[in-house]
Write a structure and sequence with these properties.
The structure holds two protein chains of two kinds. Chain A is α+β, with helices and mostly antiparallel strands. Chain A has helices spanning about 25-30, 80, 85-90, 115-120; strands at about 1-5, 10-15, 20-25, 35-40, 45, 50-55, 60-65, 70-75, 95-100. Among the domains of chain B are: about 1-55 and about 140-240, Probable tRNA modification gtpase trme, domain 1 (Gyrase A, domain 2), CATH 3.30.1360.120; about 290-365, Beta Barrel (Elongation Factor Tu (Ef-tu), domain 3), CATH 2.40.30. In chain B, helix 2 packs across helix 7 (about 230-240). The longest helix of chain B is centred in the middle third of the chain and has 12 residues, at about 210-220. The chains are: A alpha+beta, B alpha+beta. The interface between A and B is medium-sized, with 14 and 19 residues.
């Protein structure tokens, strides 16, 4: 399994044709205290770069984009009870949704960890 | 970041950065949005004491023969009857009765000290200067910073400061009640202190020459009850307290009656009028206005934000002007303007958020009970 990153600060773990998506630790730090996550329902088709979820901090609502196109299979039920998981464990228990990829070649443009860390350092 | 280039800095800028603040642009200034996190800062202020830098706000002095009468030509307060060392909330009104700004007015006995919003201060000054009669001066105290110490332990912290009254006719600091103020000397530094604020908590606003602001802030932060608090928590605190924010819940298209701020129209002015837009505002006061600012309890966990529309089945009946998450109540809350027929407490409404309808109920404000220590209250 490899983890890839977007310039919009989403991460995606890919295993076969399945992927798990969340936001990075940098992103949660920028957002501040997360109080609600509006997650996509299973079965929803998402397109690369399109809105897939909305994360609400105390001060603002922020869009979360799909790193690749595909169909949502599951969203993280734990976030409904404890949205602060996005702050405490953004790259683990605070994942957002899983999807089946419709075009694996879309992964080619994403960053690996070293490239993402360098990207964040440049901000 | 590139968009920070044109931001002005405030006297406590270096201190904020040293304390680890995340800085953002607000009212043209670089200001701290948060230090430890908005929820932690919000809850700290409700339980202990929070130190806020509100130096972006405009501090004005109005002085001269007839200053009270002149202020009454701009705002609907009873400034002729305002006793020395008392503070009043008031509204700067346009000729049509729309709200140009909300402000605090303190009578010092010799003059009037005004605190206006940061984003509107230059507009306010231009508005006032254009109407300034001979013999009255308007002074912008640009060389002063303004700190707010808010929370139930603010009084404990301030009681440890050695404050010498500047004049014999003012109240002793220990006797200063909410919405009162005067001037004290601390280590030879002049402090203008009002017991007031905009968080729903007891506390103080302290005006000090900018060159002494950091020493004062450090002295306050040296007490274990005090932590620095950013603009993010200031906004969630005032929203819970039901206090409107200018530019969001109040604007030039909105009158005091629509804004549910009729208390800011003094009794005598309700009878006599004579303030800008009095005819329209008093007509609304006695005959009702078409819309009203209300508080909304939002069902579920999803916050509804400013701009979201309010509905009763297929009819849009209003719009949110503030909305967010209430850290002390652990639920989403909002302020909205709704048509008066749907403004009664308990009215069931719906808010549209991203194409979905969420249930909401009109509730009395404040959402969170205020903790003011009023005149006549036990100490």
């Amino acid at each position: 399994m490899s983890r890839l990153y977007t310039q919009d600060h989403e991460w995606i773990d890919v295993a076969g044709g399945e992927a798990t998506v969340g936001i990075t630790d940098y992103a949660q730090g920028q957002l501040g205290d997360v109080v609600f996550v509006d997650l996509p329902d299973a079965g929803r088709a998402v397109t690369k770069g399109g809105e897939a979820a909305v994360v609400e901090s105390v001060k603002a609502a922020s869009d979360v984009y799909a790193p690749v196109s595909g169909t949502v299979t599951e969203s993280n039920p734990a976030l409904a009870d404890d949205p602060s998981l996005v702050n405490s464990a953004p790259e683990a228990e605070g994942w957002f949704f899983k999807l089946t990829l419709s075009d694996a070649s879309e992964l080619d443009g994403l960053m690996d960890k070293a490239a993402y860390d360098a990207f964040v350092a440049s901000l | 970041m590139a968009d920070d280039v044109d931001l002005k800095t405030l006297p406590l800028d270096a201190l904020h950065r040293r304390l680890g603040a995340r800085m953002v642009g607000f009212a043209g200034y670089a200001m701290p949005i948060q230090f430890d996190g908005i929820i932690a800062e919000h809850l700290w202020t409700r339980e202990h004491a929070g130190l806020f830098d509100v130096s972006h706000m405009g501090q004005l002095l109005v002085e001269g023969e007839g200053a009270a009468e002149w202020l009454e030509s701009l705002a609907p307060g009873d400034f002729k009857a305002l006793q020395p060392h008392r503070v009043r909330y008031s509204l700067l009104l346009a000729d049509n009765g729309g709200i140009l700004d909300d402000l605090m007015v303190t009578s010092t006995g010799r003059n009037f000290y005004l605190v206006v919003n940061g984003a509107t201060k230059y507009g306010d000054i231009a508005h006032m200067a254009a109407r300034l009669p001979a013999g009255i001066t308007l002074h912008h105290m640009e060389d002063h910073a303004l700190l707010a110490l808010q929370g139930p332990q603010a009084v404990t912290v301030m009681s440890r400061f050695d404050l010498t009254p500047e004049s014999a006719d003012q109240p002793a600091f220990a006797d200063l009640k909410f919405m009162a103020g005067a001037r004290w000397l601390w280590n030879g530094i002049k402090l203008g202190i009002t017991r007031s604020g905009y968080t729903g908590e007891d506390g103080y606003e302290i005006s000090v020459l900018s060159e002494h602001a950091e020493a004062l802030a450090e002295a306050l932060l040296a007490h274990e009850e005090v932590k620095p608090i950013g603009l993010g928590a200031r906004d969630s605190l005032r929203l819970e307290a039901g206090l409107p924010l200018y530019g969001h819940d109040l604007d030039p298209e909105t009158t005091p009656v629509e804004a549910d701020l009729s208390f800011a129209i003094s009794k005598r002015r309700k009878t006599e009028g004579g303030f800008p837009g009095a005819e329209r505002v008093l007509d609304q006061l006695f005959n009702g206005a078409a819309r009203k600012r209300v508080g909304l309890a939002v069902e579920g966990r999803m916050p509804a934000r400013e701009g979201a529309t309010v509905w009763v089945s297929d009819e849009q009946v209003g719009v949110l002007t503030s909305g967010g998450f209430a850290p002390s109540l652990n639920v989403p809350i909002a302020m909205a303007y709704v048509t008066t027929e749907h403004s009664a407490d308990g009215t069931a409404l719906e808010i549209e958020v991203r194409g979905k309808r969420i249930a909401a109920t009109v509730v009395p404000m404040p959402f969170k009970q205020k903790n003011y220590v009023r005149e006549g209250d036990k100490k």
